[in-house]
Fold this sequence. Notes:
The chain is α+β, with helices and mostly antiparallel strands. 50% of the residues lie in helices and 25% in strands. The strands form two sheets. It has a three-stranded mixed sheet with strand order 3-4-5, covered by helices on one side. The protein has a two-stranded antiparallel sheet with strand order 1-2.
Amino acid sequence: MGIIDRIILSIYTLLLAFLSIGVILLSLRLISLDVIWTGISQISGQWEAGLVGAVFLLISIRLLLAGMRSRRVKDTIVHHNDMGDIHISLEAIKNLVEKTARHTRGVRGVKVDVNREGQGLKVSIKAVVSPEVHVPSASAEMQQRIHEYIKNTVGVELADVEIYVENISNDFKAKQRVE
């Protein structure tokens, strides 16, 4: 919540406190109900009163949304050291995995997804490989390289590296032209 929202919330809370005091005084019969009805009848038909009500409604909606807004940092991995915390986003790890997978021999394209699984991370890769490569050995090489690279670079053990070969690229297929 920003400083402006905090100021608005303070003023809003102060006004609600005065309204609460008025309701308490009314319930204890320290203020006459006739005084309240006379004040409400004065408001009837006044566009300024409607404007004030609309402003309070908008402020209420804004404060409600500001309170519901999450301050949570996106999924990260946290390393603690003597000087403070280091947060590494899963998006950064995803980019590292993608870079490593693309540099595997025979891999034409990859789509990577990284999720938390227990204390480690689960990496899911959808790959497109060349037709001349042996798929099981290329997949095993990709898994090994990714596992070692992430462990050495980020310092996190991967719980699972799952590879789904989505397609075998056909580089020899003649592309059709649209004219």
